[in-house]
Amino acid sequence: MKDEKVEKLLSKLFSIETSELRKFFADFLLEVFSGKWIAVTRYGRMLAVFIPMKDAARLQLLKSKKYREVLKAIDAELK
User: How confident is the model at residue 10 (pLDDT cuts 50, 70, 90)?
Assistant: First the structure.
């Protein structure tokens, strides 16, 4: 996947710098728990995205054999 395309797709997410994350970690976790996806950045570059458990389970399901073709189509779209 090209980083630019992935970052463009995720650019509308709320993001927080790692330095701020350290200060407000408990509040940050409550936001994720409430359903928000939050990108973590360092020096303006996206490093990771924290997502709620329910969404993580959905993504794991996409990785299963049953949905492998759907995941391949998504990956092709991101290239």
Answer: confident
